[in-house]
Amino acid sequence: MKLLAKNKKAFFNYEIIEQYIAGIQLNGREIKSLRQQKPSMVGAFVTISGGKPILRELNIPRYKHDTTQEHTPKRDRLLLMKKSEIERIESKLKGENLTVIPLSVNLDRQWAKITIALARGKKKHDKRRSIMERDQKRQAQRAVKKFVS
Fold first, then answer.
1. Which of 2, 25, 115, 138 could link 107 by a cystine bridge, Cβ 3.0 to 4.6 Å?
2. Residue 100 near residue 7, CB atoms below 8 Å
3. Which numeric CATH code is attached to 2-122?
4. Which residues contact 13 (CB under 8 A, 6 or more apart)?
5. What is the pTM of this model?
6. If DSSP codes are grouped into helix, strand and coil, which group holds residue 116?
């Protein structure tokens, strides 16, 4: 699968619990736009209403060769998932303090796919711990590189 966009802040701001892959229902020239330009995942989130998962605030820019004026870049898009997966996500959302966030947008042959995750928001001290662990890994890699060289 070809990676088109990645939510870089998701792993820093959230603790990822489960991941799912879903299809995205696109209109008209949106798939062409996805292939040419990077979509923006800033502020994107997923809601489930009426038993249907809906992706909100994903910005797909206008296709540059499109001559029609009817393009809304941040419209709501339906996600295509199995009913059992949707029900599992809904039940976990009701019971716990969780949210559903998009992680990445990919192209699988000609199909646009999105990786979504059940996530729990991190507290400030958890974010500090993540930064500290990342810095320790960098220092260890530098020490190994210096020792090997």
1. 2
2. no
3. 2.40.280.10
4. 121, 122, 127
5. 0.81
6. strand
